[in-house]
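Operator note (shift B, R.M.): manual run for 16S rRNA (Guanine1207-N2)-methyltransferase requested after the automated queue skipped it. Running by hand, logging everything below so the morning shift can see what happened. Input copied straight from the record, untouched. If output looks odd, do not overwrite the archive copy; leave it for review.
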Amino acid sequence: MSFPPGQTPDVQPSRLTETFDFTQLSPPADAVDMLLLDTAAAWWEQGHPREGVLILDDRSGALTLPVLDALISEAGKPGAACAAVEDAVSAVHVVQDELGAELGLQRNARRYELPAPVPAELPSLTEVHPEAFTGVHTVLMHLPRSLETLADWAWLIREHAAADVVVLAGGRDKHMNHSMNQVLEKNFTDVSAGRGRSKSRILTARSPRSDVPAAEPRTQAHQIGIPGAAPTDLTLCSMGATYGGTKLDPGTRLLLQTAEAQAEFPGAEEAVDFGSGNGTVSAFLTLRHPELHVIATDHSASAVQSTRLTAAANGVADQIEAMRDDALSTLPDSSAELILLNPPFHQGNAVDPAAANRLIRAAARVLAPGGRLYCVYNSHLKHRSVLTREIGPTQQLARDARFTVTVSTAS
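Run finished. Output pasted below as returned.
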């Protein structure tokens, strides 16, 4: 059945939400997950193709696993070949920006004894035929808070999905705004808001536009001044989900200016840019020190792409090795002489030192004896005691109204 523009199927509780046991999921499913699943089921019951499902940034598997379970149950009826089950799994594509979400989905899949889809890499905006996006008929996703992220997702879908694609983007009413509709409307001619349920709502986008200009990574030029030296020109690049976009973070600026003023800096042939974001630290260090090799790590696939783009834009790609990693998990113990870190100070909207403490402990494991961690953090936070306890003697190098810069030496 084809629905006229602006109309969508009636949404009721479906098999996807009524027969799947959500109690084992960690983190648990929320109202947006349930409404997205029921909305997808409503489209499929009206004849929209079930194959070619793309799920974006599923934080726990709450969207992916019920869809997989239903497809496998249908494919695995008595007399069905194993190939039919494999086809059901291959019909679902999953792309996640954060490595933690990707690992969480895999853990939950094991709990349910379901074969999780092989995670697809986040495609670049210039990739010709990204496998996860090409030819998909249904897209399920939580609305990201960043409009830049939504713009990148929408363009990739518009550019590569099937002509009949139905994009279902869900969010909590309090987090939704009309700008989200406007971003979708730049890529689709038919964007409509569904009926609310449990303080949640779905935006449905259909009919990809044919007159949308090619998307490009965002770029911005900056300059970092160093006392007694010529300023360093820096071009920062960003994909949508990268924290801070193309901005030069003021704490990172202070960290770099302070570190460069130290007589012993860098004092190593290799440095680790821990949480590389848009690649500010990596590009600046390699521009200032052409002999330096930098390992740039971030848990965000978007940030890794942004770091690589920034490295290329500044002509230092050969000196920077960017990798997606969770808390330096791929680096050996006692292997680094120099690490630079600007840790997060919040989880979601709440100030929470737990994330920073976890990264400091990771740095302590990776630092070689005598290795140094240069760290910048919000001055009101009490990280110095944690740095001293986990790493070793910690010296304050700079402090202003907002930020503190320290150097810790591994014992």
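Quick read of the result: The radius of gyration is 23 Å. Residues 3 and 377 are 53 Å apart (CA to CA).
Leaving this for review. - R.M.
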